[in-house]
Amino acid sequence: MITAPFDVRRRQKFLYEDLYHKTRENLLALIEVRLANKKIVESTLENSVAHQFLYLEAFWIWMLDYTAGEPIDALAPRIASIVDRFKEWNEIDQFCQQEAALEFPDYGPYEYNGAPDFSTLANYENTLQLLSIAILLRDQHSVLRIIHVLRSHRGQDGLFEQLIGAYVEDKQDLDSCILEKPYDTLLQVFYENNERETLKLVQKYLKQWYPAMKGHPRWYDGHLRIRDEGYAPYYGYWAFEAGATVFLLDLDDSQIDHLVYPKDLVDYARQLRKESHHSSVEMKPSAKRERGE
């Protein structure tokens, strides 16, 4: 099998081959460090942070490989193990929350609260990206596991509710997002009945997305921050939630051509739907189907 040159198969122009290999090696090294540190942490808070970064480093390797042009068929089976790490982080974080409730009883008893804080841009975007990728891979089992972790977040964020609407029996229609910009623009897509106007909203969101990510501490402008060792905190800039929205609503994206839009992943999801195929299945018979299915 002949493999296309790197600059042909890559999905974004900022990634070149040496940068890809050195960044991937650095992420793998960071995971080894996190695994070692996890064994010597002295508090549940430190343990929670360690597990959070184990999940994120694995997720960013997946995203980096996607940006580098790895075939989606090869990437698809890997998302379940990343969701495993997402779930493990949440489980450890519950111990942290329980300790805090005992230490500060004036704030009330412990109540379950999923680890990702939706009021923080990095947590919100990272979680939406993971959820949206699972949707586009038609990995229903992973989608439902993510929803279960985030059960405490129900009824708070309009975009989250719309993305999970096909997978729950009690979808809630909300007209706003916890973080308004740029997410309210994408939320409007679900309520717009004119397809031409709908696509304008998607295009508007894609233009707004990257400038709005300025507050993401890890990877914003990562392609400009190349270290002396040759790696960078750049894994690809992808508005996966826009792709999931287009897929769920079965919109015509033939006129969408934007750097951050994962068009081939949307095409992959459409093909799976056409074939009535899922990466994994765990849906109740009464659960709603995606539009177009």
TrEMBL record:
<feature type="domain" description="PoNi C-terminal">
    <location>
        <begin position="156"/>
        <end position="265"/>
    </location>
</feature>
<dbReference type="InterPro" id="IPR015025">
    <property type="entry name" value="PoNi_C"/>
</dbReference>
<dbReference type="Pfam" id="PF08929">
    <property type="entry name" value="PoNi_C"/>
</dbReference>
<dbReference type="InterPro" id="IPR028983">
    <property type="entry name" value="PA2201-like_C"/>
</dbReference>
<protein>
    <submittedName>
        <fullName>DUF1911 domain-containing protein</fullName>
    </submittedName>
</protein>
